[in-house]
Structure formats: structure tokens, C-alpha cells
Design goal:
10 strands, single chain, 8-stranded mixed sheet, globular, alpha/beta, two-stranded parallel ribbon, 9 helices
Length: 271
């Protein structure tokens, strides 16, 4: 009887720990000044943008404008670091004939607050609304881009705002599927409040979808990216990046990676 009581207490304590510290397991934000905050040292001209979420959180992003841009890409980044950690990718992405807007969720970089699932969804909506309110952005030519956890945010945004295309890279199906993959036999997925249920939402998206995933991804299993793609409606395209891990897709993919993205954007923008 004492053994059963001990096991029960341990199990209850395990549940409480997961619930209390769940966001610490999901989000790994780097606050300013941690990171690389000098995009001009990478040869990039950037506009610092500040805007406010629907619940009053002050947010920050970078806008990289391009003359005669064929579209504007709104980038929802992953769960770690901040926008400044994406500069190496941005240097190459900004060579395409598109505007790029990357923003930090609440609690990341220069953005205020603390991250949670409801909040980061609101932040993406605020980023979209800010971009489409600008006179120098064509609100009818918006590409929504999400990477890793940001893919779940991008899918959610695409169900609430209009875009001409959705790009998902190294994205999982749901937080519960990720927990199963990461924690094995531990029943973390039964306890989690966080859903990030991209696969349930993607079925309601009617715009073109482009999914990219590295075959050697050790963070988000390749099979989850494939399952997410299979759940999406047509028209859709899957880009399998051979031997790419989670964070080096644009490096391993090289020239082909950016060509594929530009081809997709051109089709969506009618260019």
C-alpha cells in the first residue's frame, strides 16, 4: 500500500512539474542584447519596427525592404533565440526580389512579455496586421513563412488572415507528437496544455502550401514534416532536403533551396 501511495505521489508531482514549467520546455527566448544586433555588419539595410499585440504587448521586428518586391514574406521563427540569430539565413533570403519581415514573439529579443501559445498566435496576427497597414507593402501579396515551432504559428495565422502562399520548414504536426518523439515512454503528451496543433488546422487552409524538411533532422523527425504535408490541401509541394539537419536546411540545400522558394513565391504572386 505504501508503495502504491509513493508511486501516486511521484506521478502527481511529475504532472505538477510539467504543468508548472511547461513553457520553459517549449520556449527558449534570448532577450536583447543577447544575439547579433547589427544587421548592417552583414551588409543588410533594415528598419526597426515596433507594434502592439491585441492584448497590449509591445513587439519588435525587422523589415527588409526591396524595390519592386513581388511579395512580402512574414517570417514566424522557431522556439529558440531571437530574430538576430537568423541573420545568416536573412543575408541570403534578402537577395530574392521580396520584402522580408521577421518579428520576435513576446519575451524574445526586444519584445516585451513572456511567451505562451495563445500569446504567440496573437503576436503573429499583430505582425501581419502591422505589415498590411503599411503603404509600402502590397497587402494582397503576402507570403506566410514559418520555421520549426514557427510553422505551427504560421499555420494558425493562415487560418485567420489572407495570404497568397504558406511556406513551412522543419515543422512538426503537433506539440503532442513532438513530446512523444522527444520523451519516449514518459506520458508527457497526455499532460501538456500546449497544443500547437498544425496538422488539425492545415486541413482548413486553401492557399498553396510549400513544405520543406531535412531528411537528417534530429530535432523534428522528417516523418512529422511529411505527415503535415500529406494533411495539407492541394496545391502543395514537398521539398526533401537530403542530409539536412534541423538548422542547416538553407546551407545544405544551397542554391537549390532559394531557387525552390523563389519558384513557389513566383507562382503564388503570378510573376
Amino acid at each position: 500500500m505504501k508503495f502504491i501511495a509513493t508511486v501516486f505521489i511521484i506521478f502527481v508531482a511529475f504532472i505538477l512539474l510539467i504543468r508548472l514549467f511547461e513553457n520553459k520546455f517549449v520556449y527558449f527566448p534570448f532577450k536583447y542584447p543577447q544575439g547579433h544586433w547589427q544587421p548592417d555588419s552583414f551588409g543588410l539595410q533594415v528598419e526597426d519596427c515596433y507594434f502592439t499585440s491585441p492584448d497590449g504587448i509591445k513587439l519588435h521586428g525587422w523589415f527588409f525592404a526591396k524595390n519592386n518586391a513581388i511579395a512580402t514574406l512574414i517570417w514566424c521563427h522557431g522556439n529558440a533565440g531571437n530574430i538576430s540569430d537568423r541573420l545568416y539565413d536573412l543575408v541570403l533570403l534578402c537577395k530574392l526580389p521580396i520584402n522580408v519581415f521577421i518579428f520576435d514573439y513576446r519575451g524574445y529579443g526586444r519584445s516585451e512579455g513572456s511567451p505562451d501559445e495563445k500569446g504567440i498566435y496573437l503576436d503573429a496576427e499583430a505582425a501581419y496586421d502591422y505589415m498590411t497597414s503599411r503603404n509600402d507593402v502590397n497587402k494582397n501579396k503576402i507570403i506566410i513563412f514559418g520555421r520549426s515551432l514557427g510553422g505551427a504559428v504560421a499555420v494558425d495565422l493562415a487560418t485567420k488572415r489572407s495570404g497568397i502562399g504558406l511556406i513551412l520548414e522543419a515543422t512538426f504536426t503537433s506539440a503532442k507528437d513532438m513530446a512523444k518523439s522527444s520523451f519516449g515512454f514518459l506520458p508527457v503528451h497526455y499532460i501538456m496544455k500546449t497544443k500547437l496543433n498544425a496538422i488539425a488546422k492545415i486541413t482548413g487552409i486553401e492557399i498553396p502550401v510549400f513544405v520543406a524538411h531535412g531528411t537528417s533532422d534530429r530535432t523534428v523527425p522528417f516523418k512529422l514534416g511529411r505527415r503535415l504535408f500529406e494533411a495539407a490541401n492541394e496545391p502543395k509541394e514537398f521539398y526533401e532536403i537530403q542530409n539536412a539537419d534541423h538548422n542547416d536546411t538553407f546551407v545544405v540545400g544551397g542554391k537549390s533551396y532559394f531557387e525552390k522558394i523563389l519558384e513557389f513565391i513566383n507562382r503564388c504572386a503570378g510573376s
